[in-house]
Amino acid sequence: MNLPAILAPRLPALIVAAGPQAAARTAEFFLGHITNGHTRKAYARAVGDFASWCETMGVTSIADVQPLHVSLFIRQRERERSAPTVKQALAAIRMLFDHLVISQVIPTNPAASVRGPKHVVKRGKTPVLTPEEARHLLDSIDAGSPAGLRDRALIGLMVYTFARIGAAAAMNVSDVFWQGRRLWVRLHEKGGKDVALPCHHNLETYLEEYLANTGIGSDTSGPLFRTIGRGTGKLSRSSLPQSNAWSMINRRAKAAGIRTKIGNHTFRATGITAYLKNGGTLEKAAAIANHASTRTTQLYDRCSDDITLDEIERVII
Protein backbone atom coordinates (compact mmCIF):
# COMPACT_ATOMS: atom_id res chain seq x y z
CA MET A 1 0.00 0.00 0.00
CA ASN A 2 1.57 3.30 -1.04
CA LEU A 3 1.75 6.50 0.98
CA PRO A 4 -1.24 8.30 -0.60
CA ALA A 5 -3.48 5.28 0.04
CA ILE A 6 -2.49 5.23 3.70
CA LEU A 7 -3.08 8.94 4.17
CA ALA A 8 -6.10 9.31 1.89
CA PRO A 9 -8.69 9.03 4.70
CA ARG A 10 -7.00 11.92 6.51
CA LEU A 11 -6.62 14.20 3.49
CA PRO A 12 -9.43 16.49 2.28
CA ALA A 13 -11.44 15.10 -0.62
CA LEU A 14 -10.41 18.19 -2.62
CA ILE A 15 -6.81 16.95 -2.60
CA VAL A 16 -7.52 13.23 -2.98
CA ALA A 17 -9.61 14.01 -6.09
CA ALA A 18 -6.54 15.53 -7.78
CA GLY A 19 -4.81 12.14 -7.83
CA PRO A 20 -2.11 10.15 -6.03
CA GLN A 21 0.68 12.62 -6.76
CA ALA A 22 -1.28 15.52 -5.22
CA ALA A 23 -2.00 13.42 -2.13
CA ALA A 24 1.64 12.35 -1.81
CA ARG A 25 3.02 15.86 -2.23
CA THR A 26 0.49 17.26 0.29
CA ALA A 27 1.49 14.64 2.83
CA GLU A 28 5.13 15.47 2.12
CA PHE A 29 4.43 19.17 2.75
CA PHE A 30 2.90 18.62 6.19
CA LEU A 31 5.14 15.79 7.38
CA GLY A 32 8.44 16.81 5.81
CA HIS A 33 8.40 20.60 5.55
CA ILE A 34 6.43 21.71 8.63
CA THR A 35 8.62 20.53 11.50
CA ASN A 36 6.88 22.27 14.41
CA GLY A 37 3.94 20.26 15.71
CA HIS A 38 1.83 23.28 16.69
CA THR A 39 2.39 24.94 13.30
CA ARG A 40 1.52 21.69 11.54
CA LYS A 41 -1.81 21.47 13.39
CA ALA A 42 -2.66 25.10 12.69
CA TYR A 43 -1.79 24.81 8.99
CA ALA A 44 -3.67 21.53 8.64
CA ARG A 45 -6.73 23.14 10.21
CA ALA A 46 -6.51 26.12 7.84
CA VAL A 47 -6.11 23.95 4.74
CA GLY A 48 -8.94 21.68 5.92
CA ASP A 49 -11.24 24.67 6.42
CA PHE A 50 -10.38 25.98 2.96
CA ALA A 51 -10.97 22.57 1.37
CA SER A 52 -14.37 22.27 3.06
CA TRP A 53 -15.30 25.77 1.92
CA CYS A 54 -14.28 24.95 -1.67
CA GLU A 55 -16.50 21.89 -1.64
CA THR A 56 -19.49 24.03 -0.65
CA MET A 57 -18.66 26.27 -3.61
CA GLY A 58 -18.70 23.34 -6.01
CA VAL A 59 -14.92 23.05 -6.43
CA THR A 60 -14.13 19.34 -6.39
CA SER A 61 -10.38 19.25 -7.04
CA ILE A 62 -7.44 21.31 -5.86
CA ALA A 63 -6.39 21.61 -9.49
CA ASP A 64 -9.55 23.66 -10.15
CA VAL A 65 -8.93 26.27 -7.42
CA GLN A 66 -8.68 29.80 -8.80
CA PRO A 67 -7.41 33.06 -7.23
CA LEU A 68 -11.04 34.17 -6.86
CA HIS A 69 -11.79 31.17 -4.64
CA VAL A 70 -8.88 31.93 -2.33
CA SER A 71 -9.78 35.63 -2.23
CA LEU A 72 -13.45 34.95 -1.38
CA PHE A 73 -12.43 32.51 1.36
CA ILE A 74 -10.03 35.02 2.93
CA ARG A 75 -12.57 37.86 2.74
CA GLN A 76 -15.14 35.66 4.49
CA ARG A 77 -12.64 34.71 7.16
CA GLU A 78 -11.86 38.39 7.78
CA ARG A 79 -15.46 38.85 8.95
CA GLU A 80 -15.25 35.86 11.29
CA ARG A 81 -11.68 35.66 12.65
CA SER A 82 -8.91 37.89 13.90
CA ALA A 83 -6.37 39.34 11.46
CA PRO A 84 -3.47 37.15 12.71
CA THR A 85 -5.58 34.01 12.30
CA VAL A 86 -6.57 34.98 8.76
CA LYS A 87 -2.99 35.82 7.82
CA GLN A 88 -1.86 32.45 9.15
CA ALA A 89 -4.55 30.68 7.11
CA LEU A 90 -3.49 32.48 3.95
CA ALA A 91 0.15 31.62 4.63
CA ALA A 92 -0.74 27.94 5.02
CA ILE A 93 -2.73 27.86 1.77
CA ARG A 94 -0.08 29.81 -0.13
CA MET A 95 2.78 27.60 1.10
CA LEU A 96 0.92 24.41 0.24
CA PHE A 97 0.19 25.62 -3.28
CA ASP A 98 3.82 26.72 -3.67
CA HIS A 99 4.90 23.20 -2.80
CA LEU A 100 2.43 21.72 -5.26
CA VAL A 101 3.70 24.02 -8.01
CA ILE A 102 7.32 23.05 -7.33
CA SER A 103 6.25 19.39 -7.35
CA GLN A 104 4.57 19.97 -10.75
CA VAL A 105 1.16 18.95 -9.45
CA ILE A 106 -0.43 22.25 -10.51
CA PRO A 107 0.93 24.88 -12.95
CA THR A 108 0.44 28.05 -10.87
CA ASN A 109 -0.24 29.15 -7.30
CA PRO A 110 -3.81 30.58 -7.09
CA ALA A 111 -3.04 32.14 -3.69
CA ALA A 112 0.05 34.05 -4.84
CA SER A 113 -1.84 37.23 -5.78
CA VAL A 114 -4.27 37.22 -2.84
CA ARG A 115 -3.62 39.79 -0.14
CA GLY A 116 -4.38 39.19 3.49
CA PRO A 117 -5.63 41.72 6.06
CA LYS A 118 -3.32 44.46 7.26
CA HIS A 119 -1.98 43.74 10.70
CA VAL A 120 0.94 45.66 12.12
CA VAL A 121 2.07 44.84 15.66
CA LYS A 122 4.45 47.26 17.35
CA ARG A 123 3.80 46.16 20.91
CA GLY A 124 3.03 42.67 22.10
CA LYS A 125 0.06 41.73 24.27
CA THR A 126 1.79 39.14 26.43
CA PRO A 127 1.15 39.87 30.14
CA VAL A 128 4.40 40.56 31.99
CA LEU A 129 5.24 40.24 35.67
CA THR A 130 7.28 42.88 37.42
CA PRO A 131 10.62 41.68 38.83
CA GLU A 132 9.05 41.91 42.29
CA GLU A 133 6.11 39.72 41.26
CA ALA A 134 8.40 37.13 39.65
CA ARG A 135 10.63 37.07 42.74
CA HIS A 136 7.60 36.73 45.01
CA LEU A 137 6.21 33.86 42.93
CA LEU A 138 9.47 31.92 43.06
CA ASP A 139 9.92 32.55 46.80
CA SER A 140 6.33 31.53 47.55
CA ILE A 141 6.86 27.97 46.32
CA ASP A 142 7.53 25.56 49.18
CA ALA A 143 10.64 23.62 48.12
CA GLY A 144 10.15 21.03 50.84
CA SER A 145 8.53 18.53 48.48
CA PRO A 146 9.41 17.02 45.07
CA ALA A 147 6.52 18.95 43.51
CA GLY A 148 7.73 22.25 44.97
CA LEU A 149 11.32 21.65 43.87
CA ARG A 150 10.11 20.78 40.37
CA ASP A 151 7.77 23.74 40.04
CA ARG A 152 10.34 26.26 41.27
CA ALA A 153 12.97 24.86 38.89
CA LEU A 154 10.57 24.92 35.92
CA ILE A 155 9.37 28.49 36.47
CA GLY A 156 12.91 29.65 37.23
CA LEU A 157 14.14 28.05 34.00
CA MET A 158 11.60 29.97 31.93
CA VAL A 159 12.33 33.27 33.68
CA TYR A 160 16.12 33.12 33.52
CA THR A 161 16.56 31.56 30.07
CA PHE A 162 13.48 33.01 28.28
CA ALA A 163 12.56 29.40 27.42
CA ARG A 164 9.25 28.43 25.87
CA ILE A 165 7.26 26.03 28.00
CA GLY A 166 7.44 23.47 25.19
CA ALA A 167 11.23 23.60 25.19
CA ALA A 168 11.34 23.28 28.98
CA ALA A 169 8.94 20.32 29.02
CA ALA A 170 11.02 18.53 26.36
CA MET A 171 14.24 18.57 28.40
CA ASN A 172 15.94 15.45 29.70
CA VAL A 173 18.10 15.28 32.82
CA SER A 174 21.15 15.14 30.53
CA ASP A 175 20.22 18.60 29.26
CA VAL A 176 21.47 20.01 32.57
CA PHE A 177 25.24 19.74 32.63
CA TRP A 178 28.43 21.26 33.97
CA GLN A 179 30.74 23.18 31.67
CA GLY A 180 33.73 24.88 33.23
CA ARG A 181 32.58 25.94 36.65
CA ARG A 182 28.97 26.74 35.74
CA LEU A 183 25.85 24.72 35.28
CA TRP A 184 24.44 24.91 31.75
CA VAL A 185 21.11 23.95 30.20
CA ARG A 186 20.35 22.74 26.70
CA LEU A 187 16.98 23.79 25.28
CA HIS A 188 15.36 22.09 22.30
CA GLU A 189 13.70 25.07 20.66
CA LYS A 190 11.46 25.53 17.62
CA GLY A 191 12.82 24.53 14.25
CA GLY A 192 14.90 21.72 15.72
CA LYS A 193 17.45 24.15 17.15
CA ASP A 194 19.37 23.31 20.31
CA VAL A 195 20.35 26.29 22.43
CA ALA A 196 22.93 25.89 25.23
CA LEU A 197 22.99 28.59 27.92
CA PRO A 198 24.83 29.08 31.22
CA CYS A 199 22.57 29.21 34.26
CA HIS A 200 21.88 32.33 36.30
CA HIS A 201 23.10 31.68 39.84
CA ASN A 202 19.50 31.47 41.13
CA LEU A 203 18.56 28.97 38.45
CA GLU A 204 21.69 26.97 39.21
CA THR A 205 20.55 26.68 42.82
CA TYR A 206 17.02 25.65 41.84
CA LEU A 207 18.21 22.96 39.43
CA GLU A 208 20.91 21.57 41.72
CA GLU A 209 18.49 21.24 44.64
CA TYR A 210 15.82 19.75 42.39
CA LEU A 211 18.13 17.07 40.95
CA ALA A 212 19.82 16.24 44.25
CA ASN A 213 16.78 16.15 46.53
CA THR A 214 14.49 14.20 44.21
CA GLY A 215 17.08 11.58 43.27
CA ILE A 216 16.65 11.92 39.51
CA GLY A 217 20.11 13.36 38.87
CA SER A 218 21.54 9.97 37.86
CA ASP A 219 18.68 9.16 35.49
CA THR A 220 20.26 11.10 32.61
CA SER A 221 18.05 9.57 29.90
CA GLY A 222 14.82 10.39 31.73
CA PRO A 223 12.72 13.56 31.45
CA LEU A 224 13.81 16.52 33.55
CA PHE A 225 10.33 17.66 34.57
CA ARG A 226 8.08 14.78 35.59
CA THR A 227 4.61 14.05 36.85
CA ILE A 228 3.96 13.22 40.51
CA GLY A 229 3.05 9.59 41.08
CA ARG A 230 -0.53 9.09 42.23
CA GLY A 231 -0.65 8.66 46.01
CA THR A 232 3.14 8.69 46.40
CA GLY A 233 4.07 12.37 46.32
CA LYS A 234 7.22 11.35 44.45
CA LEU A 235 8.32 12.00 40.88
CA SER A 236 7.40 9.35 38.32
CA ARG A 237 9.38 8.68 35.15
CA SER A 238 6.68 10.20 32.94
CA SER A 239 7.30 13.58 31.34
CA LEU A 240 5.19 16.47 32.63
CA PRO A 241 2.70 17.38 29.85
CA GLN A 242 2.52 21.03 28.81
CA SER A 243 -1.12 21.23 29.84
CA ASN A 244 -0.26 20.03 33.35
CA ALA A 245 2.64 22.49 33.55
CA TRP A 246 0.34 25.29 32.45
CA SER A 247 -2.23 24.39 35.14
CA MET A 248 0.50 24.23 37.76
CA ILE A 249 1.81 27.68 36.84
CA ASN A 250 -1.62 29.26 37.14
CA ARG A 251 -2.24 27.46 40.42
CA ARG A 252 1.07 28.69 41.85
CA ALA A 253 0.43 32.25 40.68
CA LYS A 254 -3.03 32.27 42.26
CA ALA A 255 -1.67 30.91 45.54
CA ALA A 256 0.97 33.65 45.54
CA GLY A 257 -1.71 36.31 45.15
CA ILE A 258 -0.50 37.48 41.76
CA ARG A 259 -3.30 39.29 39.97
CA THR A 260 -1.58 39.66 36.60
CA LYS A 261 -3.12 37.24 34.15
CA ILE A 262 -0.33 34.88 33.12
CA GLY A 263 -0.16 33.88 29.47
CA ASN A 264 1.80 31.31 27.45
CA HIS A 265 4.86 33.54 27.13
CA THR A 266 4.61 35.59 30.33
CA PHE A 267 7.86 34.32 31.84
CA ARG A 268 9.64 34.70 28.50
CA ALA A 269 8.53 38.33 28.31
CA THR A 270 9.26 38.90 32.01
CA GLY A 271 12.84 37.70 31.63
CA ILE A 272 13.46 39.68 28.44
CA THR A 273 12.07 42.89 29.95
CA ALA A 274 14.13 42.51 33.13
CA TYR A 275 17.24 41.80 31.06
CA LEU A 276 16.79 44.91 28.90
CA LYS A 277 16.00 47.12 31.90
CA ASN A 278 19.33 46.13 33.41
CA GLY A 279 21.41 47.13 30.41
CA GLY A 280 21.11 44.05 28.20
CA THR A 281 21.09 44.54 24.45
CA LEU A 282 18.24 43.65 22.11
CA GLU A 283 20.59 41.58 19.94
CA LYS A 284 21.77 39.46 22.86
CA ALA A 285 18.19 39.06 24.13
CA ALA A 286 17.19 37.78 20.68
CA ALA A 287 20.08 35.29 20.73
CA ILE A 288 19.13 33.98 24.19
CA ALA A 289 15.46 33.71 23.20
CA ASN A 290 16.37 32.03 19.88
CA HIS A 291 14.53 34.67 17.88
CA ALA A 292 15.43 34.94 14.20
CA SER A 293 14.76 38.68 14.28
CA THR A 294 15.08 41.37 16.96
CA ARG A 295 11.67 42.61 15.83
CA THR A 296 10.15 39.54 17.48
CA THR A 297 12.11 40.19 20.67
CA GLN A 298 10.85 43.79 20.76
CA LEU A 299 7.30 42.47 21.10
CA TYR A 300 8.26 41.03 24.49
CA ASP A 301 9.92 44.23 25.73
CA ARG A 302 7.75 46.12 28.24
CA CYS A 303 10.34 48.66 29.39
CA SER A 304 8.21 51.43 27.92
CA ASP A 305 5.38 50.55 30.32
CA ASP A 306 7.24 52.31 33.15
CA ILE A 307 7.59 55.44 31.05
CA THR A 308 3.90 55.41 30.22
CA LEU A 309 2.90 55.00 33.86
CA ASP A 310 5.22 57.82 34.95
CA GLU A 311 3.63 60.14 32.41
CA ILE A 312 0.07 59.18 33.40
CA GLU A 313 0.87 59.92 37.07
CA ARG A 314 1.66 63.50 36.04
CA VAL A 315 -2.08 64.04 35.73
CA ILE A 316 -2.45 65.39 39.26
CA ILE A 317 -6.07 66.28 40.07
Please describe the structure with a list of short key phrases separated by commas or semicolons.
2 domains; mainly alpha; 317 residues; hpI Integrase, Chain A; two-stranded antiparallel sheet; 15 helices; 3-stranded antiparallel beta sheet
Which CATH-level-2 architecture of the largest domain? Answer: Orthogonal Bundle
**How much of the residues is beta strand, in percent?**
5-15%
Calculate the mean pLDDT score and round it: 86
**Which outline best applies?**
globular
Helix and strand composition category? mainly alpha
Low-pLDDT parts are 1-9
- The helix content, as a percent range, equals 40-55%
Give the quaternary arrangement of the chains. single chain
For this structure, the CATH topology of the largest domain is: hpI Integrase, Chain A
Distance between the termini: 78 Å
Count of individual beta strands: 5
CATH homologous superfamily (4th level) name of the largest domain: Intergrase catalytic core
Briefly, what CATH class of the largest domain?
A: Mainly Alpha
Describe this structure in words.
With 317 residues, this protein is mainly alpha-helical. It folds into 2 domains: 3-102, no CATH class; 131-312, Intergrase catalytic core (hpI Integrase, Chain A, Orthogonal Bundle), CATH 1.10.443.10. The protein contains 15 helices and 5 strands. The strands form 2 sheets. Strands 1-2-3 form a 3-stranded antiparallel β-sheet. A hairpin with a 6-residue loop joins strand 4 and strand 5 (235-239). Helix 8 (146-161) runs antiparallel to helix 10 and helix 8 (146-161) crosses helix 12 (266-277). The protein is globular and about 65 Å long. Keywords: Chromosome partition, DNA integration, DNA recombination, DNA-binding. Residues 124-314 form the Tyr recombinase domain. Residues 21-101 form the Core-binding (CB) domain.
